[in-house]
Design goal:
Shape of chain B: globular
Number of helices of chain B: 0
Structural class of chain B: mainly beta
Largest interface: A-B, 26 and 27 residues
Oligomer: heterodimer
Helix content of chain A: under 10%
Distance between the termini of chain A: 41 Å
Radius of gyration of chain B: 13 Å
Strand content of chain A: over 45%
Largest sheet of chain B: 7 strands, mixed
Order of helices and strands of chain B: EEEEEEEEEEE
Largest sheet of chain A: 6 strands, mixed
Structural class of chain A: mainly beta
Distance between the termini of chain B: 35 Å
Order of helices and strands of chain A: EEEEEEEEEEE
Shape of chain A: globular
Number of strands of chain A: 11
Chain lengths: 113, 112
């Protein structure tokens, strides 16, 4: 059974810092991996999607990497801003069972001005 | 203005009652999903549908039911058999089951 873990569970940093969020998964047979942002009481906003054949994806100040063989992905946020404060979720899409998403518990990020 | 609409945003239910959560999308997506989120936790899959008139159980389907009579709509019924229904419910859709998923804004259900 696929299990997804995100470390740390919570993170507080001063504005301007570069930071890394970690995601690990137990079964490397994944189709792709997706990073999401969730604001309190809201739905999920898709940030980046990395296919299993890719090593990284970039969007603006965000860069996500994928090392499928070791079961890890990282989300790098450059020059963090208070508006980046949110919960960040990673989810892996299983290669079987209808390609369903399995989510990690999320990292709650607070960027202080 | 394309997207996924969930209604209502907040829902209160008495114990023993069934309640239906609405999810509508105008993205022309084939696949739709229902997830449950509990405080401080990730999302868990309740049901999913890859095509109209077809749906499958996810990891935590007990106490829930769905229908998919139209491509645009995937309502979720929380039945009285669901022992702990208070949670945040999220609906999502994608072009196919392996493609990027897009989410609605969620419905917060509280049992009183």
């Amino acid at each position: 059974k696929q299990e997804v873990t995100q470390i740390p569970a919570a993170l507080s940093v001063p504005e301007g810092e570069n930071l890394v969020l970690n995601c690990s998964f137990t079964d490397s047979a994944i189709y792709n991996l997706q990073w999401f942002r969730q604001d309190p009481g809201k739905g999920l906003t898709s940030l980046l999607l990395i296919q299993s054949s890719q090593r990284e994806q970039t969007s603006g100040r965000l860069n996500a990497s994928l090392d499928k063989s070791s079961g890890r992905s990282t989300l790098y946020i450059a020059a963090s801003q208070p508006g980046d404060s949110a919960t960040y979720l990673c989810a892996v899409r299983r290669s079987n069972a209808g390609n369903m998403l399995t989510f990690g518990g999320g990292t709650r990020l607070m960027v202080k001005p | 203005d394309g997207g996924i609409t969930q209604s209502p945003k907040y829902l209160f239910r008495k114990e023993g009652q069934n309640v239906t959560l609405s999810c509508e999308q105008n993205l022309n997506h084939d696949a739709m999903y229902w997830y449950r989120q509990d405080p401080g936790q990730g999302l868990r899959l309740i049901y999913y549908s890859q095509i109209v008139n077809d749906f499958q159980k996810g990891d935590i389907a007990e106490g829930y039911s769905v229908s998919r009579e139209k491509k645009e709509s995937f309502p979720l019924t929380v039945t009285s058999a669901q022992k702990n229904p208070t949670a945040f419910y999220l609906c999502a859709s994608s072009i196919g089951t392996g493609t990027e998923a897009f989410f609605g804004q969620g419905t917060r259900l509280t049992v009183v």
